[in-house]
Protein: Heme-binding protein
Organism: Actinomadura soli
Amino acid sequence: MRGERLDSFLRTQKAGPQTYESAKRKAYTAVAFGRPTSALTGNETIKQIPGTLVLPGGVPIIDKGFPIVGIGVGGAPDGRIDEAIATDVRKAMGY
């Protein structure tokens, strides 16, 4: 996700209907704040901002010190699994 533009989305046939929205919001939150969403879970202020989701599973891609893209993953039974997958995707992209 760049800004609020969704560039790519993948979903398995067995994924629940909520996974699209949760992954999108995690990606937005990660790029907007330049931090993994797991690092923001205790921030009550961010939770009030429309479009954000401060559950584990969102990671930013940082280039030259600036967040440029957010990767969001949703649907695993534990947000730590979502975040591990997002981190692996980021590494596979060379970041």
In short: The domain at 18-92 is CATH 3.30.450.150 (Beta-Lactamase). Residues 37 and 64 are 20 Å apart (CA to CA). The chain has one domain: 18-92. The longest strand covers residues 66-72.
